[in-house]
Design the sequence.
């Protein structure tokens, strides 16, 4: 999944090599190697990303540590005001940031605009921090003895983020972390770091956020490993693929750090015979093919419930509508399905489709094409009757490929879904309240949608994946973010 090619950094290039944001200013990376960042729709070179290592991470962590005492001592009310300013600034630049996301990651402008909006929503949720940080107390546990619980920041926290939501996911962490009095180091995806870069430029202008409170280091594995091993980093927030999440969580734990690592997914969408086609066709298409299937909440398996005739009717409704979707440059308002993040990603998806076919699956809609100007386009693809437990049914492919599964009734659909090792999300389309109740009770997934294709919780709730979709106990956003970014201290006092 890379839109980057590794190359030595030449002495001068047509596009500038990005700099790190450290201690309130921009610094050229110590790292000598850089990779290309290209627009997936056109192949245009739009940035060079330095592959930073421990020297650059050392600088950023030192700046964050230096800023920590002052920021921790800043009133929570004043920190909340800084978040109000951040919200205003992001809102004022929402369109510009969305255009940058489209250019760098590929998704359609509308989708990118919504993404930036969801990121701003996390800032809005974190603005409640003076309330959320309030502790507990219990008077008179013994004669003259009172107990009080206070929340204090964890310290220097780092966030390592994926390519698919380059503006939103950094904002899942940054506002809660600094709102709780921590200082922050971001390592954005090396595949599309431009939105993060721009957000740092905006933060640099916000007086209420002092130098060193927020820092950014570019790079890939070396930068991540340096953060994981750095004794000056107290906690790690990660979002990415399941294998990386497992690795990050283990290495952070070995180094004594608090970690939350949100991983991959394979989400099923169960469609009952009584489902309203106006709801499920739109919902399934948006979920499976929006952002070219590159969302952790993408529904990548449609579980068709009912008799063979009913299953066929559901399949036909989906395929007929999917055939009409237009694939192309996300900057074109006529585009429904954007390119994948890179030509390499398209090639990988095509190999997955080939493999499913070689195992006997039926290709009901073939989205393979020449890849478009940037070489990364793949149109909606629908696969039916794949063998049980094949990769297309059980592994995250992260592309516009929808697999169909056929089951006789709701119970079989729930059992099929619960067999997954992932548990990010599960969706039900039905007009029966009884079916909905049974589904939400039994389904083993943390984010459940009923007659909704993408059940992304608003930021006042946790982003609540289960099973192999998360390593760690605390999720991003909501009260979990407050738990993650604070340490509890319990004071027992006698003054009599
Ligand atoms: P990825 O795991 O390849 O990369 C994520 C981050 O980890 C990047 O910053 C990358 O530089 C770093 N990284 C990758 N491999 C590493 C390694 N071996 N050692 C150290 N660092 C490493 O993920 P991606 O392709 O950028 O993002 C897509 C994945 O993210 C999908 O699996 C998707 O489901 C998942 N995702 C999950 C959620 C969620 O909330 N659960 C949300 C969004 C995306």
Sequence:
């Amino acid at each position: 999944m890379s839109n980057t090619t590794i190359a030595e950094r030449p002495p001068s290039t047509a596009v500038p090599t990005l700099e790190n944001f450290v201690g309130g200013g921009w610094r050229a990376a110590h790292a000598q190697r850089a990779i290309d960042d290209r627009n997936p729709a056109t192949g245009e070179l739009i940035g060079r990303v330095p592959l930073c290592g421990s020297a650059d991470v050392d600088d950023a962590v030192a700046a964050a540590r230096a800023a920590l005492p002052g920021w921790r001592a800043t009133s929570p009310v004043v920190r909340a005001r800084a978040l109000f300013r951040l919200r205003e600034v992001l809102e004022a630049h929402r369109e510009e940031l969305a255009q940058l996301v489209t250019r760098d990651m590929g998704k359609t402008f509308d989708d990118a605009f919504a993404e930036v909006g969801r990121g701003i929503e996390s800032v809005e949720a974190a603005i409640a921090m003076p309330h959320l940080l309030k502790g507990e107390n219990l008077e008179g546990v013994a004669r003259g003895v009172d107990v009080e619980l206070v929340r204090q920041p964890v310290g220097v926290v780092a966030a390592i983020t994926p390519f698919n939501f380059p503006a939103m996911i950094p904002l899942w962490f940054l506002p809660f972390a600094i709102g709780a009095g921590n200082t922050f180091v971001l390592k954005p995806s090396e595949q599309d770091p431009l939105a993060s870069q721009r957000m740092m430029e905006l933060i640099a202008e916000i007086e209420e956020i002092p130098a060193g409170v927020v820092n950014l280091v570019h790079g890939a594995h070396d930068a991540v490993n340096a953060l994981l091993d750095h004794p000056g980093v107290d906690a790690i927030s990660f979002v990415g693929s399941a294998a990386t999440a497992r690795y990050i969580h283990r290495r952070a734990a070995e180094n004594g750090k608090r970690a939350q690592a949100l991983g991959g997914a394979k989400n099923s969408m169960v469609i009952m015979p009584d489902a309203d086609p106006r709801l499920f066709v739109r919902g399934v298409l948006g979920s499976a093919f929006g952002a070219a299937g590159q969302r952790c909440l993408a529904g990548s398996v449609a579980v068709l419930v009912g008799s063979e005739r009913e299953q066929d009717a559901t399949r036909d409704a989906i395929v007929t509508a999917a055939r009409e979707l237009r694939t192309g440059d996300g900057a074109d308002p006529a585009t429904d399905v954007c390119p994948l993040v890179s030509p390499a990603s398209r090639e990988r998806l095509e190999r997955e489709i080939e493999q499913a076919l070689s195992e006997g699956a039926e290709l009901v809609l073939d989205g393979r094409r020449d890849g478009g100007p940037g070489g990364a386009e793949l149109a909606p693809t629908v696969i039916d009757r794949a063998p049980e437990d094949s990769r297309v049914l059980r592994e995250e492919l992260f592309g516009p490929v929808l697999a169909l599964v056929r089951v006789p009734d709701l119970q079989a659909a729930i059992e099929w879904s619960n067999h997954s090792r992932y548990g990010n999300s599960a969706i039900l389309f039905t007009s029966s309240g009884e079916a909905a109740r049974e589904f939400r009770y039994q389904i083993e997934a943390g984010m459940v949608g009923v007659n909704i294709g993408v059940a992304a919780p608003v930021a006042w709730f946790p982003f609540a994946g289960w099973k192999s979709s998360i390593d760690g106990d605390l999720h991003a956003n909501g009260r979990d973010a407050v738990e993650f970014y604070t340490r509890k201290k319990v004071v027992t006092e006698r003054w009599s």
User: Anything to note?
Assistant: The longest strand covers residues 145-153. The chain has a mean pLDDT of 96.
